[in-house]
Write a structure and sequence with these properties.
alpha+beta, seven-stranded antiparallel beta sheet, four-stranded antiparallel beta sheet, 11 strands, globular
């Protein structure tokens, strides 16, 4: 097929041949958190997808290793038309990826329009390995 997949300790990475690669960080009933990169020299983008429209005005709260909360402000969030997918802008995504690689866990809190809050816990302890795998897969394309 046109897809390569690797599972690395709670994370799954997938690459479409000559296309986008993604790493799934967390999935739940209402929500998922993914990273996507279009090419080897491209930037990783963090994406939150929900079953309902996401309230970007509430921002996204992140907690790494159970430490203090970090807030991604609304101006750094780019929503799809139906607001069910929100990505973090390039610069903030880079900072998030750097922090995630150095962390064991990441808790994301996202709010749906209407006020429902969703918490997603991601085990990111193998993220460095997952990113190396993607580097290899994209280098071969």
């Amino acid at each position: 097929g046109n897809m390569r997949v690797a599972v690395l300790g709670g994370l799954s990475a997938a690459c479409e041949i000559d296309s986008i690669c993604s790493v799934t960080l967390a999935t739940g009933d209402d929500m998922r958190v993914d990273m996507e990169r279009a090419s080897l020299d491209g930037s990783w983008l963090i994406k939150f997808s929900g079953t309902s429209s996401i309230d970007t005005g509430a921002g996204v709260d992140l907690v790494f290793n159970g430490d203090d909360e970090t807030r991604v402000a609304p101006e750094f969030l780019i929503a799809s038309e139906d607001k069910k997918a929100v990505r973090v802008d390039d610069d903030v995504s880079q900072i998030m990826v750097t922090t995630m690689v150095e962390s064991k866990t990441m808790m994301s809190t996202v709010q749906f329009i209407g006020g429902k809050k969703i918490n997603m816990e991601a085990d990111v302890s193998n993220l460095g390995k997952a990113l190396e795998w993607v580097d290899c897969a994209q280098a071969k394309q």
